[in-house]
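Tokens for Transmembrane protein. Go.
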Amino acid sequence: MIRTITAAGVMAALVASCTVVSSSYTSEGYAPIPGSITYGGQPRTKLTRSPIGSSFPHTFTDQTGRTVEEIYVIQPDRTLRIVERHYRPFLAWDRDQ
């Protein structure tokens, strides 16, 4: 009985210490790499029709030949921020001949 109460107390403490992960991105974002939309500065055209806070993907091949997918979010001043970057696995048989 005491073990059950102790285990329940430990579990309650662990659950209480967890933080809720929200879908808002509060970090500065990733630094642009060659191939990123924002590499060399923000795009000249402003995304005036897209809602603030909306996101979109961009896929490109970096200088080493890896496929990179970045997720951008439109900021209130209409600039873009990179919030996620994923490198797809390199498989020899996936390459174009």
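The two ends are 67 Å apart (CA to CA).
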